[in-house]
Write a structure and sequence with these properties.
Number of strands: 11
CATH architecture of the largest domain: 3-Layer(aba) Sandwich
Distance between the termini: 63 Å
CATH superfamily of the largest domain: Vaccinia Virus protein VP39
């Protein structure tokens, strides 16, 4: 990479200004902030925007590591770890730059030997992790952009695969219906595939193994969001009678559009705030299965949103766990005896996962039939937790 030192210093200055404005704006998702920043700075060309985005995302992957260093040094450390070439690292960290094409483990060792960077400092919340998390592998994964995953709808699998082959898009087959592609792949440019695949992370797809629904049963997706789990359920178990709910009408409108694209017509939807008495909406209605994809810290997805490594307040773990217990308590009253509650989070924290399971068993007498930590860091995917509990 041949870039003058003057040009590198200009890039660093742009990122420093971007970071300062991001902090001042406060609480805005990074993707949304960047859109606004580039609108305010229309003099930046597409190449400059791509470079700034790359550097700022890499910067946030450092988390709490090397916090005493100036921004240029931290940018160089991050870009060294996350890239196969880096003009910033060549100027700021020439002592390690020659090894930039080494594997990630070697580059981590080099930084630890030659700088103040320490891998253990990246993620300052390790004491809260679920016991089954491989801490070293998880920390390393924070420097790797997760893949874009799609789930092939069974009836269209061959058609979608043929289209991927025809357009020469790079992909890898993960299992029968799961395909991984480079992040940012523009699948919407392939005509005729709308509704024939779903964008859904690999770990999210794996939660479907815990549904085990049958035709004619009545199921409730209680925090349906964009409807990914619901579509997975319906593709697995045709003939299920489904209720979807969320607190936000706008989210349910998006869900309707997604279901329409997928050709799904037979389902019900309701606006339900699970923090309140659900009987005011559902009465005494009972279900054969309930999916509770609970609001959580999202810590298993921080490979996609690395800014959270710096912004996260560890006290939020307890607040989310309390909310999860409350929501689970609300939905259980609508679960038939002997039927499953599918509890899901995209968290790596024990308090949101195993300890909520203990609460549901001890307080509500549910039987924990199956549970799993889905180690997304092994697959360039999100990490999640899923459990199947039976109402006694």
């Amino acid at each position: 990479m041949i870039v003058t030192e003057k040009r590198v210093r200009q890039q660093i200055h742009t990122v420093e200004r971007l970071l300062q404005e991001y902090v001042e704006e406060g609480g805005v998702p990074l993707t949304r902030f960047l859109t606004g920043f580039y609108k305010r700075n229309r003099q930046m060309g597409s190449k400059d925007r791509r470079m700034a985005s790359r550097l700022v995302y890499h910067y946030f992957r450092l988390g709490a590591a090397a916090q005493r260093e100036e921004v240029p040094v931290r940018l160089a450390m991050a870009d060294f770890l996350c890239s196969n070439d880096s003009a910033v690292a060549s100027v700021i960290l020439p002592q390690v730059y020659a090894h930039i094409q080494a594997d990630l483990s070697e580059k981590i060792s080099l930084l630890e030997a030659n700088t103040t960077f320490r891998l253990q400092d990246v993620f300052p919340f390790q004491q809260f992790l679920s016991a089954g998390i491989d801490r070293h592998a998880f920390l390393k994964s924070l420097f790797v952009q997760p893949d874009l995953y799609i789930r092939l709808r069974p009836s269209y699998r061959d058609e979608v695969m043929a289209a991927l082959e025809a357009t020469q898009i790079n992909y890898r087959i993960v299992d029968q219906y799961a395909v991984a592609l480079p992040n940012g792949t523009a699948l919407d440019r392939i005509a005729g595939l709308t509704g024939k695949y779903e964008v859904q992370d690999y770990s999210s797809q794996q939660t479907g193994a815990y549904f085990q629904a049958t035709a004619g049963e009545h199921w409730w997706d209680a925090c349906a969001g964009a409807g990914g789990k619901s579509l997975l359920l319906l593709d697995q178990s045709a003939g299920v009678n489904l209720l979807v709910s969320d607190t936000r009408r706008s989210i349910l409108r998006n869900l309707d559009e997604r279901f329409d694209a997928a050709g799904i017509k037979s389902y019900r939807q309701k606006i339900i705030d699970l923090r309140n008495d659900t009987a005011t909406v559902l009465g005494d209605e009972q279900f054969d299965g309930i999916i509770l994809d609970a609001p959580c810290t999202g810590s298993g997805t921080w490979g996609r949103t690395p800014e959270m490594l710096s912004a996260f307040d560890s006290q939020a773990i307890g607040r989310f766990a309390e909310l999860q217990r409350q929501l689970a308590t609300r939905v259980i009253r609508h679960l038939k005896p002997g039927k499953p509650l599918i509890y899901i989070t995209c968290s790596v924290y024990a308090e949101e996962n195993e300890r909520v399971m203990s609460y549901l068993q001890d307080t509500h007498g549910l039987h924990l039939q199956q549970t799993a930590l889905l180690h997304g860091y092994r697959h360039k995917a999100d990490s999640m937790f899923v459990a199947r509990l039976i109402n006694r």
